């Protein structure tokens, strides 16, 4: 699933625009900052009074139902990532009147804790009833408030393990584009910010308006796959050194019928010892690791060859195309054909 929504669509007309504040912290990502400004911005989303979009939730006269502003921890210059800087006119006080707060990803938020002032302002806004959405590594800022404890959340795949390690009370799902937990939403990296923002419009005002915005952005109105397919490999690299030679041997024999007994025999230890030490070192059972390695090999063949699905399934040791499709969907949340269409050279 790309999303998990537990909140019904709210389409009650408002007399004033829904106020969105985008919180730019040090090292803010340009794309994470720019997407919500573009999606919710008035200038690029003018709604004609004669628009075919259903008027539920749109202000009288077809006025755009959102206002958006960028704020910082304090007014002034915010140094962003990639040599860019941004001048913001307002600080954390602006959050006091925000209906929705968007926290873009930033290079500073993974290594450095957000300030007590930022955490306090977010908590106060949430207690007042504001909705908070985090993009990419912005989830680390939201996690620091404690609001995500006991909830599902996502972030960019490259930092998902660190999020789970640092905040074990959060159920981290690194295989989705975004997660909707009612007043708290989180998304994966970069382009998934568009998916999240379109979802908010869809939730607030229905499919018609979100589709209209998607057309203006030349973006998919709804993507059904998750972010797992964008992770370079299904098996993280590097793994531990225990049984590294056996893992390398297995990679050379993925097309064969590998069993747990075969792997343990290659390592020269008992099946029980092999299984226990393998899990301790890699985080996977031996056969989980073999399955993911086979899916990785299938990905390479889908990207770089013209082999059919049945041929690939046979070469990677998964037997049948149906078996390959099943494991592909479970691990990568997409089908082999969709993957090839997206990533083949």
Written account of the structure:
By secondary structure, the protein is of the alpha/beta class. It is 41% helix and 12% strand. The protein has helices at residues 30-40, 108-111, 116-128, 138-144, 160-166, 192-205, 207-217, 244-251, 260-267, 271-282, 286-304, 309-315, 321-332, 336-343, and strands at residues 18-24, 66-72, 76-79, 85-88, 100-103, 131-135, 152-153, 171-172, 178-181, 184-187. The strands form three sheets. Strands 2-1-5-6-10-9 form a six-stranded mixed beta sheet, with helices on both faces. A two-stranded antiparallel ribbon has the order 3-4. Strands 7-8 form a two-stranded parallel ribbon. Helix 1 runs parallel beside helix 6 and helix 12 packs across helix 13 (321-332). The longest helix is centred in the C-terminal third of the chain and has 19 residues, at 286-304. The model is unreliable at 4-12 and 48-57 (pLDDT under 50).
Inertia-based shape: elongated
Secondary structure: helix percent: 40-55%
How are the strands of the largest sheet arranged? 2-1-5-6-10-9
Strand-pairing-aware structural class: alpha/beta
Q: Specify the number of helices.
A: 14
Secondary-structure element string: EHEEEEHHEHEHEEEHHHHHHHHH
Beta-strand percent range? 5-15%
The main β sheet shows up as: 6 strands, mixed
Poorly predicted parts: 4-12, 48-57
- Give the overall average pLDDT: 86
The separation of the N and C termini measures 27 Å
Number of strands: 10
The whole-angstrom Rg is 23 Å
């Amino acid at each position: 699933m790309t999303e998990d929504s537990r909140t019904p669509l709210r389409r009650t007309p408002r007399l004033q625009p829904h106020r969105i504040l985008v919180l730019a912290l040090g090292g803010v990502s340009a794309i994470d900052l720019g997407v919500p400004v573009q999606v919710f911005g008035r200038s690029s989303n003018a709604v004609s009074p004669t628009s075919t979009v259903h008027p539920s939730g749109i202000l009288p006269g077809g006025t755009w139902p959102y206002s958006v502003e960028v704020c910082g921890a304090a007014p002034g210059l915010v140094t962003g990532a990639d040599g860019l800087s941004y001048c913001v006119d307002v600080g954390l006080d602006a959050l006091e009147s925000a209906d929705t707060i968007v926290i873009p990803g930033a290079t500073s938020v993974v290594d450095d804790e957000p300030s007590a002032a930022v955490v306090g302002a977010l908590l106060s806004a949430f207690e007042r009833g504001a909705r908070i959405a985090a993009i990419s590594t912005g989830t680390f800022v939201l996690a620091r408030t404690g609001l995500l404890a006991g909830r599902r959340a996502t972030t960019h795949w490259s930092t998902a393990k660190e999020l789970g390690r640092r905040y074990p009370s959060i159920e981290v799902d690194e295989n989705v584009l975004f997660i909707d937990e009612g007043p708290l939403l989180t998304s994966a990296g970069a382009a998934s910010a568009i998916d999240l923002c379109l979802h908010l419009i869809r939730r607030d005002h229905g499919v018609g308006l979100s589709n209209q915005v998607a057309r203006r952005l030349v973006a998919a109105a709804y993507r059904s796959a998750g972010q797992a397919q964008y992770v370079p490999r299904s098996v993280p690299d590097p793994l531990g050194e225990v049984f590294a030679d056996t893992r390398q041997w297995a990679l050379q024999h993925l097309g064969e019928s590998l069993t747990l007994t075969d792997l343990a025999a290659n390592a020269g230890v008992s099946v029980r010892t092999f299984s226990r030490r393998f899990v301790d070192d890699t985080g996977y059972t031996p056969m989980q690791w073999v399955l993911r390695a086979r899916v990785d090999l299938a990905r390479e063949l889908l990207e770089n060859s013209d082999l059919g699905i049945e041929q690939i399934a046979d070469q990677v040791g998964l037997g049948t195309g149906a078996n390959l499709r099943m494991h592909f969907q479970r691990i990568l949340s997409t089908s082999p054909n969709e993957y090839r269409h997206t990533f083949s050279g």
